[in-house]
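Design request, tokens follow.
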């Protein structure tokens, strides 16, 4: 594990923006958090950035350097060779990167969650809470200009400032793609700990302040492709009306997707050992959909329906919150004997809907 509670950090970030549901109501801003745990989480994510820079490895194509709106050829700032077993060895060239970044170039790391475990767990937590496919890009610059002009993105975004200050101008009109920002647009300098929510298709301009600055952008699409699938189905049958589906229907449909978080319970499955400190979390990327019928509990998760005794309802609800619980914490909060909780955890590990670590 990583030493910081990624799920708690993600929940606090979304709560600061107005709730754990996908941020709505236009552009939203969260001021720097005062609590020590959240600051420690920001530092853990920043450490993830430095770790990714130190060993880009086989994911070297996740890195790009943008200067004056154009990508700089990788041969200038990256050294790569193929070693034994056709393994790609990659290192960055500090001298060139330093001068380019100081000139105003931006070093972009795409899909940072694929390069560091801390960022991966944080991204997975945001996906679970937002019910959205998500990815994390990192932007590093030190100049006063911007490598990108006014633009908009085709997805919603959360921006978390980790180091230095960055100047953001965001159109006050949600959905505005105009090249010129409207009067009265959001105009703020983000400092470490601040978080900004930018809806999709909203024009914005980003520029440096003359100091080294690092921020993360979490791109996300609420309810993954479920809304698009619904629209496509309506078009297929020739229906012109495409009402927005009910949230409960969307949640049930999302639970049918096979998407799974990273992690494995192989140790617990093979040895049968689950100790008080074993950390347990739900395996699916998105929350399960749970229904009750008489004395039966039906849990839909990762495209499967799992039927359980209704006595397990509270324990399943605790796990379905999404964060990791130790076995000791789960047993203490459950209304079942420890032996029944242990049996549920063992069953979940064997059938791959629970992840047991440690």
């Amino acid at each position: 594990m990583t030493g910081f509670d990624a799920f708690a950090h993600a929940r606090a970030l979304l709560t600061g923006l107005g709730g754990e549901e996908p941020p709505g109501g236009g552009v939203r801003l969260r001021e720097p958090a005062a609590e020590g745990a959240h600051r420690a989480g920001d530092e853990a994510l920043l450490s993830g950035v430095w770790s990714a820079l130190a060993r880009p490895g086989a994911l070297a194509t996740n890195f790009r350097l943008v200067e004056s709106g154009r990508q700089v050829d990788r041969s200038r700032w990256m050294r790569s060779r193929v070693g034994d077993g056709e393994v790609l060895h990659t290192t960055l060239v500090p001298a060139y990167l330093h001068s380019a970044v100081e000139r105003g170039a931006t070093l972009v790391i795409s899909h940072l969650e694929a390069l560091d475990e801390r960022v991966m767990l944080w991204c997975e937590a945001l996906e679970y809470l937002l019910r959205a496919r998500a990815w994390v890009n990192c932007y590093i610059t030190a100049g006063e200009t911007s490598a990108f002009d006014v633009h908009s993105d085709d997805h919603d975004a959360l921006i978390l400032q980790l180091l230095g200050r960055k100047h953001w101008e965001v159109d006050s009109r949600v959905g505005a793609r105009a090249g010129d920002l409207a009067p009265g647009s959001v105009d703020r300098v983000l400092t470490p700990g601040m978080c900004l929510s930018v809806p999709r298709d909203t024009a914005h301009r980003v520029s440096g302040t003359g100091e080294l600055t690092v921020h993360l952008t979490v791109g996300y699409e609420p309810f993954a492709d479920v809304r698009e699938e619904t629209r496509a189905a309506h078009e297929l049958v020739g229906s012109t009306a495409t009402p927005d589906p009910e949230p409960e229907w969307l949640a049930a449909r999302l639970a049918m997707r096979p998407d799974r978080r990273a992690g494995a319970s192989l140790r617990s499955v093979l040895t049968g050992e689950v100790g008080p400190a074993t950390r347990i979390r739900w395996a699916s990327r998105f929350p399960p959909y749970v229904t009750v019928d008489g004395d039966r509990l039906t849990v839909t998760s990762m495209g499967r329906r799992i039927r359980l005794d209704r006595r397990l309802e509270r324990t399943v609800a605790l796990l379905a919150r999404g964060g990791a619980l130790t076995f000791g914490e789960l047993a203490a909060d459950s209304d079942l004997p420890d032996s029944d909780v242990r049996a549920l955890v063992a069953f979940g590990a064997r059938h791959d809907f629970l992840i047991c670590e440690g």
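Comment from the thread starter after seeing the answer: thanks! The first strand starts at residue 28 and ends at 30.
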